[in-house]
Amino acid sequence: MQESKNASKKDDLERHLQTLETTEVAKTTKWADLAFDEFDQVEVLLEVEEAFDAIIPDDASDKIESVDQAIEYIHENKLHEAA
Q1: Which residues on neighbouring strands pair with residue 30, listed in sequence order?
Q2: Helix or strand (DSSP H, E) at 20
Q3: Which of 21, 31, 34, 67 is least buried, going by the fewest C-beta atoms within 10 A?
Q4: In what helix (H) or strand (E) does residue 18 lie, and over which residues does it extend?
Q5: pTM of the model
Q6: How far apart are CA 11 and CA 8, in angstroms?
């Protein structure tokens, strides 16, 4: 049940990111590909935190540089949290 809910949230996040008009967003898309500055990166990760009811510590968020890394972080940490 929880995995299904997380998959749905992941899909929602990917759909939200795909609304960017100039760039197609995929799991492998890096923040630099989207011309994100630090504030954009923080804003996206705050939305990820809210969508997944998670907290990404600053030291971890500084290392997240792509959509895939954000998904991987949430997947790894939410699964350990739920176990």
Answers
A1: 66
A2: none
A3: 21
A4: none
A5: 0.67
A6: 5
